[in-house]
Amino acid sequence: MTHPILYLGDTSLATAASYLAGVMHRAGLLFDHKASHEGVSPDDVAGRKLIIVSDYPAARCSPAAQAAMAHAVEGGAGLLMLGGWESFHGLGGDWDATALTPLLPVVISAADDRINGDGVALLRLTDAGACHEATASLPWDARPPVVGGWSRFSPKAGARVLLEVVPHRTRREGSGFAFMAGPAEPMLVVGNTPGTRVACLATDAAPHWVGPLVDWGTDNTAPSCAGRVKAQAPGAEAIEVGALYAQFLEQLVRWTGRL
User: Fold this and answer.
1) Residue 170: which H helix or E strand, with range?
2) SS3 call for 84
3) Over residues 230-257, mean pLDDT
4) Average per-residue pLDDT in the chain?
5) Domains in the chain, please, with CATH?
6) N or C: more exposed end of the chain, with fewer CB within 10 A?
7) Element containing residue 181 per DSSP (H, E)
8) pLDDT tens digits, 203-235
9) How many Cα atoms occupy the beta-carbon half-sphere of 109 within 13 Å?
10) Where would I find the beta strands (DSSP E) of the chain?
11) Could you tell me the pTM of the whole model?
């Protein structure tokens, strides 16, 4: 049986893919998964409502499969690309010269685009994101989440930036700390082409790039760690994550795939 979602990458269900897989399984979103070392064929793409590409090298996807993916998106299927070392250009991602490149709402670098942060990188909601289904009903202002790394890209003309990442440099001042904000960069960009739904999230859904975002929603003052959810997709490792992290990923997947 072919499920609505084709999820490509994040190594395997026994490792990094367990995070997004667990969130989708908990939400009742049905998917088939291909590990990062497995190839994908045009038959794998047929009949899907959403294709997710995350830490999945373009080299694993034959030209025929890439063409099938592009055709599916042009026909109404959603496309969600998440950041990672093998996403966008990255270190072996190489999605900057494929059949999907024209459909993405971002310009991908032709060189290594990985940003491995060593400081506090906060996510900030934009005006466009304030009224968007993928980012609605989440406390971006009251408790902005932090990520550990991201893929650097730029939005194409007409695309909408829903989230930005603002890296900070930090230094100690007396008994406290001073935070100095750097330039904002796009974090979540969605397309604006009628009839298609394509989204690019610059960070990963799994460690290490996801950083503290994976625990977003946790109440660290409660002994029971309130604000956390547990999930386990079939064939995957069990996860325990922040409730807001799970809500954000579910909303993003549902919007992109019209699910």
Assistant:
1) strand 160-173
2) coil
3) 98
4) 96
5) 5-257 (3.40.50.880)
6) N
7) strand 176-181
8) 999 999 999 999 999 998 887 888 999 999 999
9) 15
10) 5-9, 31-34, 50-54, 78-82, 106-107, 114-125, 146-151, 154-155, 160-173, 176-181, 185-190, 197-201, 228-231, 239-242
11) 0.97
